[in-house]
User: What shape does this take?
Amino acid sequence: MADLSLNDLLGSKLHQRKESGLLRQLRVAEGKTDFCSNDYLGLARSNELKLRISEAEGQEGGGIGSTGSRLLSGHSRLSEQLEQRIAEFHGSPTALLFNSGYDANVGLFSSLGRVSHTIVYDELIHASVHDGIRLSKATGIAFRHNDPQHLDQILSAVDGHSVVAVESIYSMDGDACDLRAMADVCDRHGASLIVDEAHAVGLFGQQGRGLVHAAGLEGRVFARLMTYGKALGCHGAAVLGSDVLRQFLINYARPLIYSTFTSRHALLSIKCAYDMLSVVDDKRQITSHLTALLKHELSSLASVHLIPSNSPIQGLVVPGAARCRAVAQQVWDDGFDIRPIVQPTVPMGSERIRICLHAFNTEAEVMALAGSLRKALEMNS
Assistant: This one.
């Protein structure tokens, strides 16, 4: 083994993954109908949003790059004003911008581990939360997906203060969290609830404010994460919470402290995307209608399981990595951009084809996708 080069060792690991049918590869989806992206409202391809951003850049002026981390030269009046706007829109005391949702979760949870010795999380929480917990000094404990009773049992056995992490809409299953039940459990045990709204912001709640707002739970949730690379069609993220939390993260969140801050263009993009949230109710309704249509068309499939979800994320469980990949490849060949989701992203036996609906999709495209899926499943039964 000592005689092998590092490239040999890397190649060996890649070969193992390929042999197990789990090798990941990049694919360009030119010419395919998009049923894959998180661009639920179509803002990432919106000419109106593009024009608004261009006009804002002309009005604001300024340079291109931020030139440094926020604690050095990267902070600006624009970022302060945008954070105030975000906080007011979501009914939060403050907001703090990060370069991405991944950075925000890693920064948030790795920092909180300094003061909260236990972080309890839904077993299907995003990988960025797992990585944040690993970097913290806290003990991470998983509870069964969307199971407030199991969460209650765990918190009953934990000493000291605990943080609880959930998603309002889960990225791989597309189902919604029972936020009120989770908040009730946390209140009973004095735990702090954190909700990742990455796949809810823009889609749910008044003008897309998210499910915490829709449930009227702003005052009972310690922190919320909003990301902007999905329904808002741009890039970046914000952590919403108290002024104490904001100042704490400025002092301890390493992704914020040690990374060059996002560009002026990205900040203006977020600002313009928020401006559009008040005028895209029709897009939210179209997305909801197409979601219901696809669910109806796939409801008769007997050999697979469609995960219950009312969000634009629909998971068609096709157990077995090889079969799941084969079905996805055939649908891809039919002209539809869908992707198989396999280990380690989801547990073995729950491999699925993740389908995302968008305001720019049509009924005809949804019907054609359903037909392609039926054919592919029959041929790979």
About this structure: The chain has 15 helices and 13 strands. The chain has two domains: 27-43+280-379, 62-278.
